[in-house]
Amino acid sequence: MSTFEATGRIAEPIRFGRWLAFAALFAAAFFAVVVVTAVTINVTPTHPIEGPPFLIGSFSDVLKIFSRNFLVLTLYAMVGVAVIVLRRGAASGDASRRERLVVKAGGAIVAAIVLGAAARQAFVLAKMLAEFSGYLGESPIRMGLALVPHAAIELSAMFLPLGAILVERRSGEEAMRRALAISVAIAIPLLMLAAVTEVYVSPKVMAAVTCPAAAGGAASGPSCLSGQ
After folding, report:
1. Which pick of 111, 112, 155, 160 has the fewest CB atoms within 10 Å?
2. Residue 15, in any domain of the structure
3. How far apart are the first and last CA of the chain?
4. pLDDT tens-place string over residues 46-81
């Protein structure tokens, strides 16, 4: 039976659990790639940016972070829409061989876009992590762990639409559309929670782990928690 009943009721909890499980798996893999890349690449140490997640920011920082992450969520949601459209074309009984080849090519292009966007984002984050950890004299792995409080929520929310589409890919177009809409609706408040965590919680964790103020951070930054 499809995730969604004929009456249009919301997905069963077990299905949402699967969406979240796949999203968390994607998030963990992405984060691991970022940290491993940061450990292996050679960069010039750079002074950390004077703001979250290194130093506590303001609500305007929350809005900026949320807006940036919302754009990424939109990209992955549009990928979900593309998958639905391509699946419709592939399932059409009237489609010719040429049309089916076009659908397959479209699927390959969508996959390439997703992988390309994710790879670019991962490399940019890894480069920043390597530069900042080098400046602070810390291990990228140690600094990466300090980012987990907000990164776990943020990345899981971003990948939730992809997880939903992956789980519901054999449940029919209607189920896929509903899953995509619900996953995006759930991801939006999660992104706001992640932004708030990045601005107000992660800097405290970062101070406890790496002590940026003592290492030459901004004069206005917080002292190490151990020294407060």
Report:
1. 112
2. no
3. 57
4. 776 678 888 888 999 999 999 999 999 998 998 888
